[in-house]
């Protein structure tokens, strides 16, 4: 038999998990496996802090903050620094022209080159259309830091995209 707390948490997970996975996928630049790990970590942390989450003035902000902190923790793990995710085993380099679906892959690859906090700043500002103050709250930094991180991230993306010939045709 579940407690009332367990029931509340279960309803929360059922209603919000897909959105959490979508956000985690963006924050991890399309790494679906890392996104799933991140969501599980967030849900574990949230379950432990469930009473505090329920008392929060801004539950969505609280959730974004937990997600960014979990991503930062995940990136610090020693075995993650040595791991390189690949969709296919690279037997030979591909010399085929870029296909339509590869544009998204190229953008994800460009996003992967950004540090996690810069990527998070872009995701919160431009994908979720949060204002500077809400993004600063999610990242646990000042509004000036959000502005500078966003500007630097956009500049880095412009450089990476400019160096990638697959974006030149678009």
From TrEMBL:
<keyword id="KW-0238">DNA-binding</keyword>
<dbReference type="InterPro" id="IPR039425">
    <property type="entry name" value="RNA_pol_sigma-70-like"/>
</dbReference>
<dbReference type="Pfam" id="PF04542">
    <property type="entry name" value="Sigma70_r2"/>
</dbReference>
<keyword id="KW-0731">Sigma factor</keyword>
<dbReference type="GO" id="GO:0003677">
    <property type="term" value="F:DNA binding"/>
</dbReference>
<feature type="domain" description="RNA polymerase sigma-70 region 2">
    <location>
        <begin position="21"/>
        <end position="80"/>
    </location>
</feature>
<dbReference type="InterPro" id="IPR007627">
    <property type="entry name" value="RNA_pol_sigma70_r2"/>
</dbReference>
<comment type="similarity">
    <text>Belongs to the sigma-70 factor family. ECF subfamily.</text>
</comment>
<dbReference type="InterPro" id="IPR014284">
    <property type="entry name" value="RNA_pol_sigma-70_dom"/>
</dbReference>
<dbReference type="InterPro" id="IPR036388">
    <property type="entry name" value="WH-like_DNA-bd_sf"/>
</dbReference>
<dbReference type="Pfam" id="PF08281">
    <property type="entry name" value="Sigma70_r4_2"/>
</dbReference>
<keyword id="KW-0804">Transcription</keyword>
<dbReference type="InterPro" id="IPR013325">
    <property type="entry name" value="RNA_pol_sigma_r2"/>
</dbReference>
<dbReference type="GO" id="GO:0006352">
    <property type="term" value="P:DNA-templated transcription initiation"/>
</dbReference>
<dbReference type="InterPro" id="IPR014325">
    <property type="entry name" value="RNA_pol_sigma-E_actinobac"/>
</dbReference>
<feature type="domain" description="RNA polymerase sigma factor 70 region 4 type 2">
    <location>
        <begin position="107"/>
        <end position="157"/>
    </location>
</feature>
<dbReference type="InterPro" id="IPR013249">
    <property type="entry name" value="RNA_pol_sigma70_r4_t2"/>
</dbReference>
<protein>
    <submittedName>
        <fullName>RNA polymerase sigma24 factor</fullName>
    </submittedName>
</protein>
<dbReference type="GO" id="GO:0016987">
    <property type="term" value="F:sigma factor activity"/>
</dbReference>
<dbReference type="InterPro" id="IPR013324">
    <property type="entry name" value="RNA_pol_sigma_r3/r4-like"/>
</dbReference>
<keyword id="KW-0805">Transcription regulation</keyword>
């Amino acid at each position: 038999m579940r407690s009332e707390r367990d029931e509340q948490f279960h309803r929360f997970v059922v209603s919000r998990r897909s959105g959490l996975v979508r956000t985690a996928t963006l924050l991890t630049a399309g790494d679906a496996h890392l996104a799933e790990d991140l969501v599980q970590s967030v849900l574990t942390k949230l379950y432990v802090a469930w009473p505090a989450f329920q008392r929060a003035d801004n539950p969505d902000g609280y959730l974004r903050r937990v997600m960014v902190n979990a991503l930062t923790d995940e990136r610090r793990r020693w075995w993650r620094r040595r791991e390189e995710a690949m969709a296919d085993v690279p037997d030979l380099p591909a010399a085929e022209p870029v296909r339509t679906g590869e544009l998204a892959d190229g953008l994800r690859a460009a996003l992967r080159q950004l540090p996690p906090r810069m990527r998070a700043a872009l995701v919160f500002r431009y994908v979720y259309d949060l204002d500077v103050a809400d993004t600063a709250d999610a990242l646990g930094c000042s509004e000036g830091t959000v502005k500078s991180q966003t500007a630097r991230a956009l500049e880095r993306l412009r450089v990476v995209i400019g160096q990638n010939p697959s974006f030149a045709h678009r």
